[in-house]
Amino acid sequence: MNGSYLDRRSELRTYFDRTAADTWARLTSDAPVSRIRETVRAGRDSMRALLLDWLPADLTGLRLLDAGCGTGALAVEAARRGADVVAIDISASLIDVARERLPGKLPGRVTFRVGDMLDPEFGDFDHVVAMDSLIHYGPEDVLLAVESLTARTRRSIQFTFAPATPALTVMHRIGKLFPRSNRSPAIVPVNETRLQQLLGERHNLAGWRCARTRRISSGFYTSQALELCATGQANVMPRAVNDQEYAQ
Fold first, then answer.
1. CB within 8 Å of 227: residues ≥ 6 apart
2. Phi first, then psi: what are they for 233, rounded to 5°?
3. Integer Cα distance of 117 and 176 in angstroms
4. pLDDT digit string (tens) for 120-132?
5. What is the 8-class DSSP label of residue 134?
6. Does domain 3-230 fall into CATH 3.40.50.150?
7. Helices (H) and strands (E) in the chain, counts
């Protein structure tokens, strides 16, 4: 990966391990939180449910990468469907929480690892889900990450990005006014139409097509889900446009 990806990855590791680990552990639990964080929790819960809905109901015998797994909620639900899940996060603190929360018995299996979600040493997968783990990267880094993942994926990749809505764009600009030590790594708004165009132009993605897309907005949480399917798979659909979710 290029230098900008590596630099941002380092920022995120520092942020989650030294600053935000306790906050995220609380946010991803059922503990009381502020009203603002309630909207973020609700948005994340809705996004997780959407991405899981896009996966097959039966994942028995299939290998799934939870890329940027955080505290592991999505990985556990995929394992309930029988998947063999490799759940990776750059934050050792979040992985510790995920391991503590892992249920004792599941139809499938979850292996939590600390590391880079793009590291090829983790092998090949049938499905990849990257929920809110690319929202801190610019379009070029998102494209490079997707290319890296498709090279090791057989069926589908689902990822989310921060859509370039007027509100998110303003918040991004305002955030730059604060001293770096006082702010978390910035969310980078990405134009959805332009991103899909760039994905379609990438030579290394010739065997993949955009399938479904949907935006989840809940108070202070806004994120756009996009699904890529390998051509030849039964669930491949026409390219998704705008904010529409194609019917299954």
1. 54, 156, 157, 158, 210, 211, 212, 213, 240
2. -80, 150
3. 27
4. 999 999 999 999 9
5. S
6. yes
7. 8, 8
